[in-house]
Amino acid sequence: MGTADLVTIPGGSLASAYHYGQQAFASGSFDANTPGQAQTSVHVLRTVTTTATTNELFLDGAGERMTIPSGQSWTYDILVVARSTTGGNSAGYQVLGVIENQRWHDILIGGGTKTVLGETFRPWDITVSADDTNDALVIKATGDTSTIRWVATVRTVEVVQ
User: Fold this and answer.
1) Are 93 and 87 in contact (CB under 8 A)?
2) pLDDT for 92
3) For residue 108, is it left (φ>0), alpha (ψ between -120 and 50) or beta?
4) Does a structural domain hold residue 97?
5) Which of 49, 94, 98, 125 qualifies as a FRET site for 113, CA 20 to 30 Å off?
6) Which helix H or strand E contains 138, and what residues bound it?
7) Residue 20: inside a domain, yes or no?
8) In 3-state terms, what secondary structure has residue 21?
9) Across residues 50-66, what is the average pLDDT?
C-alpha cells in the first residue's frame, strides 16, 4: 500500500510506503491483512550546505521528514556521503541505532553509533536525533563555507506493536 509521492513497493506482501520516495518491502504481517507491521524500507535524503551552520537533510530536499508513527520501533542503518562542489573534499559516515515512538514521544534508544568512514576535511560532521515536535528521525549536516552536497541512504527495519 503506497500513500506518498514517488513510493515503490517492489513485491512481497503487505508493505506500506508512506514517506516521499520510500521503497518498502514486507513478507506478511502479524495481524491478517494489516500492511506495514513487519517490514524494511529504504529512504534517500539530501541537503546542500554553504556555511558552517547545521542543515537538516530531507526526503525531497526541502521539508519532507522521516516520521515515525505512534507504536512503531525502527532499527536504522544510515550511510551519508558529502562532497564539495569545488576543491574535491569528501566525507562518509555510518550511523546505526534504534528509535521508537511511544504515544507520540520519539526516543533514540542508545543514541546511535556513528562511524567516520573517511574525511578529507575534518570540520564537517553529521548528527542523528529524534524530533518530538515532528515525530521524526532527523539527520543534520554541518559543513564549512564551501558548497557541499550531502546525501543519506537510510535503511530501516520496522515493527508495529
Assistant:
1) no
2) 98
3) beta
4) yes
5) 49
6) strand 136-142
7) no
8) coil
9) 95
What's the confidence (pLDDT) of residue 44? 98
**How many domains, in total, are found in the chain?**
1
Q: What is the average pLDDT across 35-47?
A: 94
Q: How many residues does the chain have?
A: 161
DSSP secondary structure code for residue 59 in this structure: T
Amino acid found at 54: T
The CA distance from 65 to 152, in Å, is: 13
Q: Which CA distances in Å does 41 have to 19, 25, 157, 160?
A: 10, 6, 7, 14
Using the Cα atoms of residue 132, residue 9, residue 126 and residue 148 in order, give the sign of their dihedral: negative
Percent of the chain residues topping a pLDDT of 90: 66
**Which region holds residue 36: left if phi is over 0, alpha if psi is between -120 and 50, else beta?**
left
